[in-house]
Amino acid sequence: MRSPSLSERRGNKVKKTTLGFKKQKQQNERCVMVTAYDAPGAEAAEAAGVDLILVGDSLGMTVLGYDTTTDVTTADMIHHTRAVKRGARDTFIVTDMPFLTAQGSQDRTLDAALSLIQQGGADAVKIEGAGSVFQKIRMLTEGGIPVCAHLGLTPQTVGVDGGYRVRGRTQEERETLLKEALEAEKAGAFMLVLECVTEETAEEAARLLQIPVIGIGAGRFTDGQVLVYHDIIGQFSGKQAKFVKQYADARSLIEQALLSYTEEVRSGVFPDTSHTFEPLEHPGGLYGGKK
Ligand SMILES: Nc1nc(=O)c2c([nH]1)NC[C@@H]1CN(c3ccc(C(=O)N[C@@H](CCC(=O)O)C(=O)O)cc3)CN21
Ligand SMILES: CC(C)C(=O)C(=O)O
Ligand SMILES: [Mg+2]
Fold it and tell me: Where, in this chain's numbering, is Mg(2+) bound (predicted)?
């Protein structure tokens, strides 16, 4: 194996590459992806040793307070990708292409992808959907931008394709999905996210494709998993999907801390002398040296 380039080697860690993810699949190593939207979240993800971070357009629902992902703009994605990048310099970052930026003209797609890479600092972009999207994947890949495809439940188009429901349940849906998965790979995608797909359909896709298939609500047998940060730590206030496993209860932890702070300010318990600066004229300590 060639030694890592300077840009890949920072600190003690070697940043993964698209080729590395493919190798991981060949060696049957599961791939771990998690979303992040800000520097502390990215730091935590990097410290946990995830393989890659997704700056998802779920940003709209988890952090920006929207009901859907379709209000999220390219400017939003750039802003948050920059923050994630500052928190996780050694981790491969994929950023979601916002609603409709992979539709219409190729110029529109190119402009959006270029700004996510150049201004945001993303290492790759993710695009939802099939059909004309495959041409966009080919164009970006040929131009040098790694693309992750996203099939199955594609939240940006739930308004026209049947809402939040599992895909690949009928023979017809299953065949369509597998055909699309193969097309995404052929178009040059380095990775595929399958969302809300039956386990056997996702397993078959992972078997058919050489690129890693990352599942969310796609069962046990994909090459890796992705979950939303706020779902994992228990800080999402919306409806919890069946595929979520919540590993902590950050919401009640945070609420408890803020409640205690509020009570202590009101009752005068906070601040006490240990939070208080002493004047220079009292080197021995205005409060008798007590800290
Ligand atoms: N916090 C959060 N987590 C996510 O996983 C997520 C977002 N936000 N925002 C963008 C999309 C939207 N996603 C969703 C949201 C809801 C369902 C959902 O309600 N699914 C049903 C399936 C019902 C069925 O057909 O059986 C479920 O009960 O899980 C699925 C994916 C996934 N993404
Ligand atoms: C749920 C994942 C795959 C996503 O696209 C997002 O977080 O926006
Ligand atoms: Mg998304």
Answer: 57, 96, 128
